[in-house]
Description:
- With 161 residues, the protein is α+β, with helices and mostly antiparallel strands.
- It has two domains: 3-23 and 119-139, no CATH class; 30-116, SH3 type barrels, CATH 2.30.30.
- Helices cover 31% and strands 32% of the residues.
- It is built from four helices and seven strands.
- The protein has helices spanning 3-21, 51-56, 58-61, 119-139, and strands spanning 29-33, 44-49, 65-76, 79-89, 94-96, 101-105, 109-117.
- Strands 1, 2, 3, 4, 5, 6 and 7 form a seven-stranded antiparallel beta sheet that branches.
- Helix 1 (3-21) runs antiparallel to helix 4.
- The longest helix has 21 residues, at 119-139.
- The chain starts with a helix and ends in a 22-residue tail after the last helix.
Amino acid sequence: MSGVARRRGKGRGSLGLALGAVPLFGACYVYGPMTTIEPHPGVRLAVDLNDEGHTALVASVGPEAARVEGALVSSTTGAYVIRVSEVLGLHGTRTKWSGETISVRQEYAKRIREKRLSSGRTAALVGGVLGAMVGLAAGVDLVGFGGGGEGKGGGGPGDDQ
């Protein structure tokens, strides 16, 4: 196998590492306190339900729902219309949804948070991925680092070793 072909094959490993890290970018987001009184449509929300909310939304989200997550469609005085992506149960079970809309009255919410980028987590993730890629590249002679090994380098005409 030629050196070029060997390097090309090794490059796939770093591409695989980078692609494997893509799901980790979801860890770069956190739910925090709302920054505005009236959020704009499209904002990702997590609505933690109070006891009244658990009872009132049984028909909409099922029994024992503790939190509803999704994108805000609209808000009116006293209610949020949410395109639901996930429901977290009282015992930690997560149920994925495919964007069905429900209305959650504000009085059913114990706490409302919005999803936003976490700069600290993002920096740590990017640093970790870059460090892993540099380590991989150095370890597999991807960019010319590493030892010579047999049959490489040295000598010119007349070297009879």
